[in-house]
Amino acid sequence: MVAASGEESKKRPLVFAYYVTGHGFGHATRVVEVARNLILAGHDVHVVTGAPDFVFTSEIQSPRVFLRKVLLDCGAVQADALTVDRLASLEKYSETAVVPRASILATEVEWLKSVKADFVVSDVVPVACRAAADAGIPSVCITNFSWDFIYAEYVMAAGNHHRSIVWQIAEDYSHCEFLIRLPGYCPMPAFRDIIDVPLVVRRLHKSRKEVRKELGIGEDVKVVILNFGGQPAGWKLKEEYLPTGWLCLVCGASEDQQLPPNFVKLAKDAYTPDLMAASDCMLGKIGYGTVSEALAYKLPFVFVRRDYFNEEPFLRNMLEYYQGGVEMIRRDLLTGHWRPYLERAMTLNPCYEGGINGGEVAARILQDTAYGKNYTLDKLSGPRRLRDAIVLGYQLQRVPGRDLCIPDWYANAESELGLRTGSPTAVTAENNSLTDSYPQDFEILHGDFLGLSDTLSFLKSLAGLDALVDSPTKTGKHTIRERKAAAGLFNWEEDIFVARAPGRLDVMGGIADYSGSLVLQMPIREACHVSVQKIHPSKQRLWKHALARQQDKGQGPTPVLQIVSYGAELSNRGPTFDMDLSDFLEGDEPITYEKARQYFARDPSQRWAAYVAGTVLVLMKELGIRFENSISLLVSSAVPEGKGVSSSASVEVASMSAIAASHGLNISPRELALLCQKVENHVVGAPCGVMDQMTSACGEANKLLAMVCQPAEVLGLVDIPGHIRVWGIDSGIRHSVGGADYGSVRIGAFMGREIIKSIASTLLSQFLSNNGSHPDDSEEGGSELLEAEASLDYLCNLSPHRYEAMYAKMLPDSLMGESFVEKYTDHRDPVTTIDKTRNYGVRAAARHPIYENFRVKAFKALLTSVTSDDQLTALGELLYQCHYSYSDCGLGSDGTNRLVQLVQEMQHSKASKSGEGTLYGAKITGGGSGGTVCVIGRNSLKSSEQIIEIQRRYKAATGYLPILFEGSSPGAGKFGYLKIRRRNPPKQN
Asked: Which residues does the UniProt record annotate as the domain GHMP kinase N-terminal (predicted)?
């Protein structure tokens, strides 16, 4: 408790207004502990909350606590117990806190004055800080995360039109005095003054022995407490889920839910700390309350990953750092394969020894501050703090160079991951030269690693996997969990196949690929490596849960696909995936692509596996391959996700290449690229064109792949002249080809094609009925042109002058999906579906590929023209035109526009004009709506200096230091594959 002594005991009691977010019980339960200590010190506490009364009244019986039931923020809206609905969260917050903001502020200011509040505490309601400032009352936040951090990633996924929410929240927080920060915290740059306190944990009322006696549970019974705050939809608990002799205490069960005899339903107001302390382990989802109390009571925690819950990685890392956590795959949770996880939990020895009196410490700080003690440093201005926080309006990536305070245990994990501000290119290790860089640990039975430093690093990481057995702390650049999973993946007595596929920079062509355009694409230096081992099921080293699954089926060893993905932790993805290959079969035939999409959609934290495992299904369906053996697969990609440089295509191409090599399949690079496009279109469900996969498979270093996407005719490779250089600069805004903007523009283009065909058919009929003449078509051979346009297969086969002469004015700017379907029935795009309730842009979406095809042809021709400043100026102008055409389609973004503007400022600066110009043009790339900007300039030292200056200026304006993509590397076809075997294989258990 907060003891009042000496001079403080003579001071008057204080009135605290304590605001509680509407997100989860964890916030309310920690508020209880802080409020309890304030009340024990003689102060009044008014709690503003949407949580049930019993959460507070069960722990605080005092006339000094006052409950006011108001919900001023909604937190994160959950689609189910394990999945956050990002768009719904933003829309609900807007509805709850943005639209009625003025009335909320007026009401709260009036209320604070009416209760004569001395101090406002927020956990962690943004508007409370602003209301306190308006009322002239100091405020403090107590939390381990803030909503600007949580919502920023949602904005990236749900659309930039919500970005003002992030900025408003950061501005609200900037009004508070300081932050009282709890362990397991996320980056919170909106706060400049920070005080760290121990865990806030509710106290125990009863001993383990007393609780078990009340429940009639003997000490010899193993007890797991099930704590999900409500169970996953449609989930039915069964007796066989638990090992023999175990009992499960169920929190949050519905009143009418029938439970098996080895499951016990707890009352809704049950005091969970006592029950946790009486249990042997906990099974649930990660939140501050569950993690803090599990650590405090040294209770092993079997957790299931939540989707899009951005606080989770920080809490999870803390839980695992103190050896208190085991991750369960969601599929095993829902199908009842609990035994291996519970047994594993019983072997843990949680070792948290830190303080658990954070409630008392926080209450003392609040009391002292309210009495006038200065805990803060010289504060920076609110606008300065807001500017620093706007970094969260761009892509939040936990990389060095970001001015954020990260816990020691998390900073160490970042170092292990090898993150950096530059392009995550595989760099040759220090002190290594090509003369001593041969992979000595492996015998290369086939192929050549071509002196590629990233391939050498990958082979060295493979060789080091067995070191984890001897020294679990030596994990290299990957997380402990990833390395442990990978360490048990391969049988070192067997051959391993390695493939490599690069990402790509879209120099010209972009979103015109699906309309049949010529495209020019460059494979970048960053690449994905995949190692595969085909092995008899009896020799495969299965993970414990996969082995238990097979044993439960009562079968002998059957083929299993096991995948480890390095870097998964960065995107809050599960680092492992496994499935029985028989899951891809119905009888003797492969399942449909639709069923495959549903299969991977069941667990969004493992949806990434569709890009990898989907290659197996496509090979089964398209080539009739049957996989009789197990497959173990390790994915290590240096192609950053969400940057518009085809990270997904590189994973698909590398995975299929390695699997094909390991199974003796001879697939040409072009055919392999087309198969990989099917993975993305039909298994993943992203409506991409084929240029990404073609570049990753067929490209060559320092050349542009020229391809006509009708559907995929490679024209050849175009040399980049020595005096020209191309860069990629990442805007920091996450791009997704599966996003609604890209899909809607694609649909608009296909709508435009159908409308043009219909117009051409009408004009042709009129032409023929008028005996071959028509006033709107004076060109000789008009009937042939109209006939071709009436059956137009690709928009890009329509020339710009024909488009302007015949169709531009007749296309609508936009059209409702329902109206289009009524008149034209179908847009005839096999990978997108029209939403009848949505309004689609048509004219700009159709115009872009028609003109882009012309621009790409002109660009290709200019590359071979006479070297001159005019040549570079014309090439740059084509890039600029492409960029603004994207914007007309609605695929621009603040970040990419800013980068293009910075290039223009550099190009037209006095320094550039007075000397020899260096930068000439820039454009957004790929699917747009963020991602990377392609820049073209003169190949010179001055150009590189200007690119670095653009980096610097962009960071100064946004807080984000852009990744640079420089250089090129060979495609998967040129690399081929490596067949390797360990020279001195370690002994395996």
From this structure: 611-699
